[in-house]
Amino acid sequence: MAKHAETYHNTITENPPVQLQNLSVQYGDTHALSRVNLTVQEGDFLGIIGPNGGGKTTLLKAILGLLTPSAGTVLLFGSPPRQTRTRVGYVPQVNHLNRNFPINVQDLVLMGKLPGRPAPFYRFSRQDRQEVLDILEKTGLDGLKKRQVAQLSGGEFQKALIARALAVNPQLLVLDEPTASVDTRSHEQIFNLLRELNREITIILVTHDLSVISSHVLSLACLNGTLFYHGEPILNQKIIGELYGCPVELIAHGVPHRVLRSHEGE
Asked: Is 249:243 a contact under the CB 8 Å cutoff?
């Protein structure tokens, strides 16, 4: 599927959605990230790839203000993450969530409207509830709003998490492996939805699916402890070799699916 270049504005602003300067994160004696410099401009759809343990989720947590860097700075829209939480929506990895909690889809999405520290017996406004209904329609979940989340398919549950993230009316949407546990049909539905959302929202997405590079994202970051590459979503053998430490070739339905451009002479 062709990328949505016609919707990509990539506006250069004084205070971009994300600006990382010499970001380093250390867990004890382990260096998870080292001197990462990355700017994500308004309107971008950034895909982040890299091996397991390469620091991708750590990078997202630093961007979201869920951990404190050991060095460097993180700015979202020109301010520290703690000051911009209402401008950012987050979709965590599905395998870190308990789907057996007795709640339906509409109430799950409504939880995205909760303030940081809601008072006991917090009551949602009529506007909150109407906005959630609008989000359910936008994400194609309006027919499932009363269904228990435990009864959803993997793709439906992932869309419900995206809908919950949209409840804050974000300007930046951050997703961690949104298609890791879904079938091919749901994969396409989710990326079709994200492409539509990208018309108005800047998106950062972590993925292990290299086929996403050539068909969906607008820019690419290659991360393995540090940033090896940031630019157009086209890989060459040198970059991918440094990133993964071995040759990589995608296989799709038994047929090589190449995302590596010709690199003769490089």
From this structure: no
Q: Residue 131 domain-assigned?
A: no
* CATH number of the domain that residue 55 is part of: 3.40.50.300
Indicate whether 73 belongs to any domain: yes
**How many domains are there within the chain?**
1
Domain of 236 in residue numbering reads as 5-102+170-257
**Is 116 domain-assigned?**
no
Q: Which amino acid is located at 184 in the chain?
A: T
Residues 48/223, Cβ–Cβ less than 8 Å = yes
253 falls within a domain: yes
Give the three-state DSSP class for 148: strand
DSSP β-bridge partners for residue 29: none
CB 194 within 8 A of CB 7: no
Q: What is the pTM of this model?
A: 0.85
Q: What is the rounded distance in angstroms from the CA atom of residue 49 to the CA atom of residue 64? A: 18
Q: Which residues of 179-206 are buried (b: 16+ CB within 10 A; e: fewer)?
A: bbebeeebbbbbbebbbebbeebbbbbb
Consecutive sets of 10 residues in the chain, 266 residues long: mean pLDDT of each?
44 86 94 96 95 92 95 96 92 78 93 79 91 97 95 93 96 94 89 95 91 83 92 76 58 39 39
Tokens of 40: 């994500």
Q: What is the 3-state secondary structure (H, E, C) of 79-143?
A: ECHHHCHHHEEEECCHHHCCCCCCCEHHHHHHHHHCCCCCCCCCCCCHHHHHHHHHHHHHCCCHH
CA 145 – CA 130 distance, rounded (Å): 13
